[in-house]
Amino acid sequence: ARHAITSDGFFELKSLPRKAVVVGAGYIAVELAGVLQALGSETSLVVRKERALRNFDDLLSETLDDEMERHGIHIYRNTEGVDRIVVADEEGEGGGD
Asked: Which of 14, 32, 34, 73 is most buried, with most CB under 10 Å away?
């Protein structure tokens, strides 16, 4: 997939993406989303269920979600995962997979 990388690929990026979507609800996904947002990428986090780190303490995962949103990370919940990636052009129209 031309527009997708693994968490290891993050360290091979030559430049910061303007926008980034992180798929996952574990601590690596949460950490990558936080780093990308802090560095200036418009960042979204896609989780299959209700929240990130859902197997951790409820207070911790709920507070984490609140803080990520407060810092500008868009969280897409209850998605059941991602089937494909569609890259939109500047007007928001789907430009291809």
From this structure: 73
